[in-house]
């Protein structure tokens, strides 16, 4: 098979969309935080928490959707911690974010060891199964690629539409965007900047956690250490790539996932002549290139990373 | 009918009493001017009224109801709208988004956009506040942004409008338009408080004047019963004395710009500017902010290189331009923003005063700083300039604006500079400090330095300058000698209406 032919197989796009799904959730989560003016570097740790919380709920006998809800709740709690430190207390968002990532990751591993002291190989659960959407899934090619995914993937796409709607079509979204542009404009109109920002970070963190849960409950069926493997950091780049717009960020996530799916197939094709590490590097190198091309003109939220203290100017 | 009543408002910041038991009333359809020097407590008072600050004592009553303290939402709901001096607009959002922000319940699933647009258009038409609701705020001029701020208040059906130094950023023409709008608002029964330190505006636009000085309400006059002289005396607490300017003795051209253009800096860049600064002269640069003043200041400071044209200092053209080169050529800088650029807030006075010369033989030996010499220099400036501070080790951010500016001035003037760039040197200072800064600049002029005074305060320019030029959209007008152009003519130039050559 030729390297280019890969792009025209439905199975390639099925994989790309599957790889994109957790990125879409987490990117939307990060985008909400940043639009409100808070950089959430806790994303990597919060995804880890979500991956474990969702999986462990199902492993302990809960059903799959309960698992998703528990993951979201756990993410929101870490979001609350992050927001408490960065919003009313105004601490450095970099330091807090990295702290949250380290703390959340370690706490997750610790909990895993406590909960499952005996196991040597990670226990499996019954994950979400692909669900063919009647009608749409019979469209040639596209039906196989897009409309024969697990329900969580559909939820990811719905989330993008919902985030876009809320940000651009509702009074709440207006307040969130203004909080990230000029918080004193929000305060002057009688809305609490702190409430908006804390809320945004909690909701955003919940979405990040669901992104993590996708890995253990849809893409795979068990929890491994290091399984987030830098996906959170990719999402931070995707937000920039998408110029803080949900639609463009979605495209970015799919593009990155396609690179990733492509490099796996190229590895197989190359038959071991080229070191596989080069292929592993490809999506990241291409992402940096895309970032350079697309994001240089991006206008970022003006108050991003600027803590707001009432009465100061 | 009284719409607003302030009773016994007191606000302290540490030992400073910003507002001292201030009481007054505002009636329906009335325009009150709140007059006072910078630091008199005007803005603090309005921030209390609007709920940005908690007062230590006193209460605010609007339409007969006491407002809860520290709650902007309550002030908004009571019908009070505020137009801040520093606009509270989100630049990347549209006019309409800025206006409707916070006016609908947050949990509504949709925005009623068509309806909002209609109301905004109607309001702009009724009150002469022309602005396109769909435009991004970033693309608007300063005057237009102010209209958006006023529309924000009107959209919320404000009955009381507070304007904090509304004319500080406007051209004379825009100011006239604003006053027309205010008249229309009053005719509709709104009440207005506007804050100013410009006497002629107070006389032109208000019904009643309240004068604040040092946090106290020191006078209240009906505008019809008073004059500028009396108000000025009330405002500063003494007869105002103009700076004593000796006749000009022009020397050689010390800084010559020919056809200089630069990149944009804070709004505008320079566009083929030719300008000559002569020794023994103060050249005043008048203009509305954002028209290239920042670019010119950056050019003289060495932080911006010309993209075209030539710069010559003291007769020798400049090839390699940098802040270090500018200092080396004997250009002294008094930067526009003493907090952000002029000083490093968390470093000591000593460290700040040697910031421009720490690597000179005077303050360093073999790469080590001679702290004894540095401290001696700081003490010398503190003594000569009468700086009030605990010690040379004090962090500079703890000083008042006036004392900080004295240190910046002392640092700049110490090496007997050839050219002095004084950018908004008296902004935010009290009367005493202003007089002091003026006196020092005039001293340097006597000594033969060429001084460029950039100021948005036309009265300051007219009082000090031997030569006046006007900057507009990056272009500099032909120079005029002291008294050659009237304020009206300068205003026309500031608004960008060139004169026939």
TrEMBL record, chain A:
Transmembrane helix among keywords: yes
Membrane topology per record: Multi-pass membrane protein
Keyword Mitochondrion assigned: no
Keywords: Cell membrane, Membrane, Transmembrane, Transmembrane helix
Location(s) in or outside the cell: Cell membrane
GO cellular component: plasma membrane
One matching Pfam family: BPD_transp_2
GO MF, one annotated term: transmembrane transporter activity
Transmembrane segments: 6-26, 38-58, 64-83, 95-112, 151-168, 198-217, 278-295
Protein name in the entry: ABC transporter permease
Source organism per UniProt: Oryzicola mucosus
TrEMBL record, chain B:
Membrane topology qualifier: Peripheral membrane protein
Gene Ontology molecular function terms on file: ATP binding; ATP hydrolysis activity
Domain of life: Bacteria
SUPFAM superfamilies the UniProt entry points to: P-loop containing nucleoside triphosphate hydrolases
Alphabetical keyword list: ATP-binding, Cell membrane, Membrane, Nucleotide-binding, Repeat, Sugar transport, Translocase, Transport
Any Gene Ontology CC annotation: plasma membrane
Domain ABC transporter: 4-239, 255-498
Matching Gene3D superfamilies: P-loop containing nucleotide triphosphate hydrolases
PROSITE patterns in the cross-refs: ABC_TRANSPORTER_1, ABC_TRANSPORTER_2
InterPro entries named among the record's database cross-references: AAA+_ATPase, ABC_carbohydrate_import_ATPase, ABC_transporter-like_ATP-bd, ABC_transporter-like_CS, P-loop_NTPase
Main location: membrane
Compartments reported by the entry: Cell membrane
Pfam family, one: ABC_tran
Assigned protein family: Belongs to the ABC transporter superfamily.
Protein name: ABC transporter ATP-binding protein
Organism listed in the record: Oryzicola mucosus
